[in-house]
Write a structure and sequence with these properties.
about 100 residues; alpha+beta; Alpha-Beta Plaits; about 30% helix; about 30% strand
Length: about 100
Amino acid sequence: MRRDFIVTYDVSNDKRLRLVFKAMLGFGEHIQFSVFRCALSKMERQKMIEKLTGLIHQREDQVLIIELGTLPERRSRIRPLGRAYRPCDPGAQVF
């Protein structure tokens, strides 16, 4: 079962920041600066964690992975202010 996640990161080095951004493009939808929405299986989530762990500096950088629940629950858990949030088609994944 796929679950929905918000992944946000604070990377202190520009080179690592670009690498993390490029890696995240393969796992989800870029929704704001340093923020991605990802619909992932357990295996995909583990693969993302392993990839990010190898890219960041453990003492200087931070990645937060926030679980929103299963995909059908998503709409009730995301509350935008201002411009409306439009989720992408969960079937359109790039890996």
